[in-house]
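Run folding on both entries below.
>entry_1
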Amino acid sequence: MFGNSDRSPYSGNVVDSLPGASSLGQFMVKVYGLLGVSLLISAGAAVWGMGPGLRIFGGHPILTAIAMFGTLFALMGVQRIPVVNILVMFFFAGLMGASLGPMLVGALSLRGGTTMVADSLLLTTAIFFSLSLYALVSRKSFSFLGSFLFTGLILVVILSVVQIFWHPLFLQAVVAGAGALVFSGLILFDTARILQSQEGEITPVMAVVTLYLDVLNLFVSLLRLFELFRGEE
């Protein structure tokens, strides 16, 4: 799928942009390798966020959000600086993972909570691998989905804000369901966009962060759906 190469996916400058079709396989191996490490860091940070970090991330949601957005903007600024970009990206992954701590504690406290978390994780994994494989094998352009997904994302964000002040069950289900559909679509769209990027258009670090956010938000949306439709609230 990715072509043969005796180079390690982590060798060389990790911020090299797509150099052409001959190196596309190596680029994607690098992206998926870094994505895997980022997700493992998030998983470890989530465990910490459920224990010692719960007071920090559970009691200061606004400060947590500011820290996450600040780190993301910082990453965009240092994405082409070797070593620094990787460190900032891993810190961002850890911060995002730890911020899930309060949500996971709430889910696990429900009857059948462990099963819901496990099912959400398995379904997220299945969706990600299926859609990624389809995009990699088909090499189709899904740019026609861009406007729809962007509109859907804006609606999810707006409804999520409304949900803070007014949260009937049907609205929560709409937000979670729409989020699951939008972020599933974004996995397909973003993977295809990365594959078809031109030289200098995207760096591995930003490709990783893009897919990471798609996966994380899909997991959160699916977990919320499981909570709602299993009648645990």
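>entry_2
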Amino acid sequence: MRGLPWGVRKAVAVGIPAASLVIVVAAAAVLGWRASRPPTVPAQFRSDVLAAAANCPGLAPRVLAAQLEQESGWDPHALSSRGAEGLAQFLPRTWKAYAVDGNGDGVKDVFNPRDAIASAAHFDCRLLAEVATVPGDPVRLMLAAYNAGASTVRSYRGVPPFPETRQYVDAIMARSLVLTIGPLG
């Protein structure tokens, strides 16, 4: 910059930091705006979550969505160290017993999101029925049954005292209060 006139050197010296500051402030504003928006179900899963929850009285779409998010973080190919698979994290024996063909292709595929979402809602509906005689919030009891088993919920006459199960239920219920389905299409 030594060969440049003093005015140009001053403009460059002041302009570059000022431009950088503007870029940083603009980026922070955009990121802050995005972070302040409510969490939303990924677009590719919205209609399936709504349709699946509609097939089960007592299962709100936001609860189903929060449960799927808790289970896999919306990863259709998720695998757990305990052998749970897919978006809804079904164990193979549970999948075999409760899977439904959500996309109508004749195959019940744990890694297919439409099958997994429909199966999760179907299983949740069965669990709601299995814990219906237990006193307490039926949705909390259903979530506890998904995590710890319906027989465990029945034997404890409520959400069992296991920290993992209580945290699971609390996390999903809290998330369902802020999670939005988002626009369709």
